[in-house]
Amino acid sequence: MTMKKNYLFVDGRYTLQAHKESGKNFKIKNIQDLFKINLGGKKVLGFDPAIFNLYTISKLKKNKNLILKSAPINLIDKIDKKKTKNNLRRAFFAERRWLSSDDARFKRLRILKILKLRKNQIFLITSSENINWLLNIRGSDSNFTPILNCFAILNKNEKLVHVFCNLKKISKGLKKTFVRYVRFHEEEIIYDFLKNNKKQVLFDKNFISLKLFEYIKKYSKKFKTIKDPIYFEKSKKTENEIESAKMTHQYDGTAVTKFIIWIKNQKIKNLDEITAQNKLENLRKKSNFYQGPSFSTISAFEKNGAIIHYNALNYKKTRFKNNSSYLVDSGGQYKSGTTDITRTICFGNVNRKRKEIYTRVLKGHIAVNKFNLKRNTLGSHVDNVARKYLKEIGLDYNHGTGHGVGHFLNVHENPPNISKSSKCKFFEGQIMSNEPGFYLKNNFGIRLENLMYVEKNNGKMQFKPLTLAPFDKDMIETKYLNKHEIRWINNYHHDVYDKLFYSMNKKERILLDKYCSPI
Q1: What is the residue-wise DSSP string for 260-292?
Q2: What's the pTM?
């Protein structure tokens, strides 16, 4: 905000949504413009050091048009009238049967081995999800991600992992279980701990807040920035976690497929975005393992589908009409894993051009799944084939093709990453999304998303789909498909039918057979 203008910086996925929700009050800019913006001579830019990480602030400092100044308090919090209730739900153990067999002690030794910590060094972990993975615990501090917010410190010559969090969220049972190798402290104690520390502090500059960094710099001249190795280790799911993920996608696929059958056979006048969204959520809730959504559901009819991160609850209820399409992007957190799926569904007839675009998006999706992975394959190489068939007719989409997915953790996890600029390589056990799309402003949106994992067979790696739900055959123009793509679709639908048949009632089985029959 300046005295004359308000600016809102967002990435490409949120541009249309930002214009729709905030365009009257803000000038909408791409987030990358912030690092080179000129507001008319040198301007002081105030920020909350507890929110911005060291990497972002270091990048902002390179803009000679800005003078950075940290604010002692969060000014938005000061004027926010809404009172947030304290969430004191306790942390809990993630069930071992759904995780790897590695306990926290083994994981700690593994990370220390990678870090090669010396006796005069400690490693500060500032990512809550990494600490939750390390200790095999989960919490309720996020709406969609089952994590306990915390910091942690690893020390080579001390068997304890020091964890700093709200102690009211740590039960006596959890403390007792961890008594030999985890010591829990109140969150604010971390500042005293660092102040009294005489060892070199290692941390990841991409994930440490400027506030914490400035404190370290003030009281310790000995610090070093490194990459947190937990991000990479966490991305490689174990064989047991992959098997749990497969089972999770059967639960989730059952709910989504029942939803597709339901919505395709409803009277169109009875449907709207919120009714559809609630129906899908209620179907997921029928699983005893379901814990809640993994992100805010995108239930978007026609032109709303062009808003990549649309939220139906923010707008007037949109009713469905015939000869149209509907995009639904949703996911679930289950005790046994995390899901994320997008399907685009049509009602009545849609024009040939839209069907062609849907088919080209599907071709890109298949090309990603069939990609010949090699040791030096990068995310950008895979991203390129996803866009190939859209680019043949001059089209593209303004988001990445795939993101990593956690195991009963963040639905967005990095690595791996599939995007235009991705330098990520792929490793056995990694789970990620495959989600090419296309969006025509004020008209429609198409996205087709499955989760997949990297399987290694006889030294060769390949992507294998996890998601189980039919694509809408009413949207497919077979003349744009080759025989290999047709075979992939038919094999995929056969797998969906095979694995979900016994989860359906008699009427649903008949329709499942129809939706999964060969094209």
Answers
A1: HHHHHTS-GGG-BHHHHHHHHHHHHTTSTTEEE
A2: 0.92
